[in-house]
Amino acid sequence: MKKKSSQKLLFVYNANSGARNAILDSMHKVFSPSTYDCNLCDITYGLVSENRTWKKFRQDSPHAMVFLHKDEFAKKYASKFGHKFTFPIVLTEGESGLEVLIPTEELNELKTAHALVRLVKNRTV
Predict the structure, then answer these.
(1) Residues 6+ away with beta carbon under 8 Å from 2
(2) CB 3.0-4.6 Å disulfide test: which of 4, 34, 35, 86 passes with 104?
(3) Nearest-CA neighbor of 40 among 122, 119, 97, 123?
């Protein structure tokens, strides 16, 4: 069994939690993909299931990963750290608090799960 890294990665989607929101997001992806606001959602999930490339990377990664919707992140971290972030975003959580690993602008430029995997690997070595 692989030893887990002490570095925790937080992936925060630009979407709210809940079944109703998930359905609305899926419909948005189908009917108006060019205006869908969460490229992280788009890359890591298809319409109904997790992207295979991403899922394999996530399962094999030595890093602890936490996936939150923006409303969940606000409840759990905003009052604690007082940060104002844009979403989607990938953060690291360590002894010194939260740090940006992949900013919103860069996430929004990615086109594939392979590109996201490569970026995460390069930045967490």
Answers:
(1) 60, 62
(2) 86
(3) 119
Please compute Rg for the chain using Cα positions.
14
Alpha carbon distance 9, 11 (integer Å): 6
pTM: 0.77
Per-residue pLDDT 10s for the chain (125 aa) are 445 556 799 999 888 776 555 555 555 454 555 554 667 877 887 666 788 999 999 999 999 999 998 888 988 886 655 567 888 999 998 887 889 999 999 998 998 999 999 999 999 97
Residue 15 to residues 2, 12, 25, 63, 124, Cα–Cα distance (Å)? 32, 9, 8, 23, 25
